[in-house]
TrEMBL record:
Region described as Disordered: 1-34
Biased composition (Basic and acidic residues): 1-18
Biased composition (Acidic residues): 20-34
Annotated transmembrane regions: 80-100, 112-131, 151-172
Organism: Halosimplex rubrum
Key words, A-Z: Membrane, Transmembrane, Transmembrane helix
Source domain of life: Archaea
Protein name: DUF2391 family protein
Length: 203
């Protein structure tokens, strides 16, 4: 009782919620997922945890919000397909133009620039997923308990795509492996952006 009274007005009387006050926080799907995540941590058996996860899955599918502002987590086959499409849309121009080769040659002689290029890729992907707030992205069941699956997915798919397509199309020569790696790294910058956006924008 004391906790409930503490949420009322200072005179102890009931106060009706102000539905017209835009500053008053209303619970949303994000709050629901927070509560379910806390529940998953407190249950004792694996069957109960599986029930909580199933509830989270159903809640995610039942969202009736627009494309933006949804709660997303995990990385499944549909996410992988969307990331592949996005990485190809951003990557094909990089494959067919000579600029990728030229920039690869440039950073091949400058290891610090090669490192900066890869750091940029990581920062851009993480920024789109977790900072730009396109969607409410939640880290769920991370790899080894710390690595977000979605982050790994939107980096791995464009990386593999770049390796395969650039090799098949003769855009890299693995007789010079260091140069080939640098050229793939250059292509990976926009491809990781495309993969992250492709994963998030369809919701």
């Amino acid at each position: 009782m004391s906790d409930r009274r503490g949420r009322r007005g200072g005179d102890g009387g009931d106060r009706a919620p102000d539905f017209d006050n835009p500053d008053e926080d209303d619970p949303d799907m994000g709050d629901l997922f927070d509560e379910l995540a806390e529940l998953e941590d407190t249950v004792d058996s694996e069957d109960e945890r599986e029930q909580v996860r199933e509830t989270m899955r159903v809640a995610r599918e039942a969202q009736e919000t627009p494309v933006f502002g949804r709660v997303v987590f995990g990385f499944d086959r549909s996410d992988a397909a969307e990331a592949l499409l996005g990485s190809l849309l951003f990557g094909i121009p990089m494959f067919v133009e000579g600029g990728t080769h030229e920039v690869g040659l440039f950073i091949a002689d400058r290891p610090l620039y090669f490192l900066a290029t890869n750091v940029l890729t990581l920062v851009l992907a993480a920024g789109i997923l977790y900072v730009a707030d396109f969607q409410d992205v939640r880290v769920y069941n991370p790899i080894f308990g710390i690595i977000p699956r979605k982050f790994v997915g939107v980096l791995t798919i464009p990386l593999v795509t770049a390796l395969v397509v650039m090799t098949v199309w003769g855009r890299v020569d693995w007789a010079e492996p260091w140069l080939a790696v640098c050229q793939v790294s250059v292509a990976l910058v926009p491809m990781s952006i495309g993969a992250a956006l492709g994963d998030l924008l369809p919701g």
